[in-house]
């Protein structure tokens, strides 16, 4: 790890506490703080225990990259004599408030341990496919779902997946594992949609206020235009939503009762100004890293 981003356990814990005090629950409760140690092979045992303990005491969700690359699993076995999931379990850190990110290279034993612990798992299919992690070959997500493990979907950030379109992500998740298992029921459309709605809210620690349409929950809604070409002619809405639709079919987005997108257009955003800021940020980052931006 580059020295300029390396931190002591004391520095890391101070930063987490400052972030929580400053941002937790801000912007009408839309901003939350979580604890995110990178992985068992990049964090000291002391830091892992401190972060997990802090998360539990402050009722924060914990996210940790786990068995993301084959090399990470090999390093963990060489260093600890056990897989990353096994190490978390041995240290008493595999808990139901923990979200395991990526989890591409799991063993049968890992799957059993995750199911027993109540830990959640986040799959980032586009990131995995783009980086060639081996998700289709090694991923155990159909097995995790059968064991009752709560599986959510993520993008791993726009630079990692090239987009954050969750409808595309749901289709990739279901299609990838149906093909890998040669079984059209390996991941159902319901599994895929829950992974970006109700289960996703659970993984974020927000299921008491969003993720499903229920009395008392926030009006966080997405309205789809079923006259969009993705849906016409329409015979099976669920199949169309998962395997045909993309974000371009979204007509309206409502966040806590406020309309953010209407008729497919984001309200109150100056896109040209946003593009200029993004381009300047890229130039600044590239300059610091000594990279030439292709024209």
What attributes characterize this protein structure?
295 residues, alpha/beta, Metal-dep_hydrolase_composite, Amidohydrolase-related domain-containing protein, Metal_Hydrolase, TIM Barrel, MTA/SAH_deaminase, hydrolase activity, acting on carbon-nitrogen (but not peptide) bonds
What does this structure look like?
Pfam families: Amidohydro_1 (PF01979). Keywords: Hydrolase. One of its GO terms (molecular function) is hydrolase activity, acting on carbon-nitrogen (but not peptide) bonds. InterPro entries: Amidohydro-rel, Metal-dep_hydrolase_composite, Metal_Hydrolase, MTA/SAH_deaminase. This is Amidohydrolase-related domain-containing protein. By secondary structure, this protein is of the alpha/beta class. The protein has a single domain (3-217), classed as Metal-dependent hydrolases (TIM Barrel, Alpha-Beta Barrel), CATH 3.20.20.140. It has helices spanning 9-23, 26-29, 45-57, 70-80, 84-90, 108-117, 125-131, 135-138, 141-146, 158-161, 166-181, 189-194, 198-203, 237-244, 271-289; strands spanning 62-66, 98-102, 120-123, 151-153, 221-224, 250-255, 258-262, 265-266. It has a 4-stranded parallel beta sheet with strand order 1-2-3-4. The chain has a 4-stranded antiparallel beta sheet with strand order 5-6-7-8, with no helix packed on it. β2 (98-102), α6 and β3 (120-123) form a beta-alpha-beta unit. α1 runs parallel beside α3 (45-57) and α11 (166-181) packs across α14 (237-244). The longest helix has 19 residues, at 271-289. The radius of gyration is 20 Å and the shape is globular. The model has no long low-confidence stretch (mean pLDDT 94).
